């Protein structure tokens, strides 16, 4: 596995690792927790990388660790020493006692010896050590990694609940139609050489063309890379992740090291099975795959579970059933609805599937009639 040779800086710049830190999901959590268990020698590098990335997000690029902040922390160290001396003046035996500073304007070292009795000295050393560690950590993360801090920006997340769709405009002008129950994350300003976004759920992308700055979408196990094109990605709780290309070209692969890169042309769909890791490339019907973004919902010989799951996401409701038919596996439904209410959908469906319904807020009670 490629990660066995990684150091802290490699993890920081790895897209799958960054996805785990910024937009974790069950897949990334499971992968990295198991990987750390199998590679305990890399835990320190993993922890350091996470700390740096989380610090970037929390601080939103504060720039550098200013001299004022350094002075405040250093003064706190000196105050601690003075308090220790005042607390036990009998133990102060040396002349002109000063702490030896680490750097900067505090670089002058006292030439006179300082002596503390053992107990007082140990207490002071313990307290000061903690403060010095804090100072060193601040210096390390804010001054020793300028490249990372200067190239990272705040991560923006847009999320739709069930029953709501939205339009998202990315910093490069790319237009994203985000489906209900979906989430997209992206930097407030793309890097100089790449545009990376993270998707959970479903979205349609109309990517602004940039031949020298590829656009990459990470959707759980699958990475989709383009230069300028339009395509749909569906990455929900279903078994398959699907990438459907409308215009241009895309490069798609999943997260297995030995995975083959697939190149799609318009009208082709890449389907990746989460469990078996099997990949299918097939033709798709744009009118069906893209109907959702135009407010159209289509069922084609769909089973009961699919129908009510989609209605639940589409309208933001939950269904409760009574007297469900024994032959539910044979339950299939085909229909096309455009810009209509849940009441209208259920009214038409109830006639063909022989049930009554009652809508109470966000709960829909469905009762099948006795045969």
Task: Give a quick summary of the entry.
This protein is α+β, with helices and mostly antiparallel strands and 371 residues long. The chain contains ten helices and 18 strands.
Structure description:
The protein is α+β, with helices and mostly antiparallel strands and 371 residues long. The chain folds into four domains: 2-61, no CATH class; 67-146, no CATH class; 155-288, Jelly Rolls, CATH 2.60.120.1440; 295-368, Phage tail protein beta-alpha-beta fold (3-Layer(bab) Sandwich), CATH 3.55.50. It is 34% helix and 29% strand. Strands 1, 2, 3, 4, 5, 6, 7, 8, 9, 10, 11, 12 and 13 form a 13-stranded mixed sheet that branches. A three-stranded mixed sheet has the order 15-18-17, with helices on one face. A hairpin with a 5-residue loop joins strand 2 (166-169) and strand 3 (175-178). It starts with 7 loop residues before the first helix and ends with a strand. Residues 59-70, 90-124 and 137-152 have low confidence and may be disordered.
* Radius of gyration computed on alpha carbons: 29 Å
> For the record, what CATH class of the largest domain applies?
Mainly Beta
The mean pLDDT is 78
The helical percent reads 25-40%
User: What general outline do the C-alpha atoms trace?
Assistant: globular
């Amino acid at each position: 596995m490629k990660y066995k040779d990684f150091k802290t800086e490699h993890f920081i710049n790895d897209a799958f690792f960054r996805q785990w830190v910024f937009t974790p999901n069950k897949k990334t959590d499971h992968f990295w927790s198991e990987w750390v268990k199998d590679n305990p020698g890399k835990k320190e590098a993993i922890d350091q990388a996470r700390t740096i990335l989380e610090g970037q997000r929390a601080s939103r690029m504060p720039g550098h660790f200013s001299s004022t902040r350094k002075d405040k922390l250093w003064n706190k160290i000196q105050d601690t020493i003075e308090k220790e001396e005042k607390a036990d003046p009998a133990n102060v035996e040396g002349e002109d006692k000063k702490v030896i500073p680490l750097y900067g304007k505090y670089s002058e070292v006292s030439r006179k010896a300082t002596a503390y009795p053992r107990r007082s000295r140990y207490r002071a050393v313990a307290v000061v050590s903690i403060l010095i560690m804090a100072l060193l950590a601040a210096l390390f993360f804010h001054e020793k990694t300028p490249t990372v801090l200067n190239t990272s920006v705040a991560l923006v997340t847009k999320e739709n609940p069930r029953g709501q769709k939205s339009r998202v405009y990315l910093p490069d002008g790319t237009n994203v139609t985000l489906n209900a129950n979906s989430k997209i994350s992206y930097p407030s300003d793309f890097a100089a050489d790449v545009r990376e976004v993270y998707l959970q759920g479903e979205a349609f992308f109309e990517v602004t063309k940039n031949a020298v700055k590829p656009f990459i979408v990470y959707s759980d196990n699958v990475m989709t890379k383009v230069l300028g094109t339009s395509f749909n990605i569906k990455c929900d709780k279903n078994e398959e992740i699907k990438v459907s290309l409308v215009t241009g070209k895309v490069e798609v692969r999943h997260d297995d090291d030995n995975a083959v890169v697939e190149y799609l042309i318009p009208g082709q769909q890449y389907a990746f099975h989460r469990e078996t890791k099997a990949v299918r490339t097939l033709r798709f019907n744009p009118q069906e795959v893209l109907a959702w973004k135009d407010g159209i919902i289509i069922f084609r010989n769909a089973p009961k579970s699919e129908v009510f799951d989609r209605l639940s996401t589409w309208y933001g409701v939950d269904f409760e059933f009574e007297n469900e038919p024994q032959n539910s596996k044979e339950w299939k439904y085909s229909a096309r609805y455009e810009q209509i209410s849940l009441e209208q959908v259920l009214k038409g469906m109830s006639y063909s599937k022989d049930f009554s319904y009652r809508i109470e807020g966000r709960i829909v009670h469905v009762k099948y009639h006795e045969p």
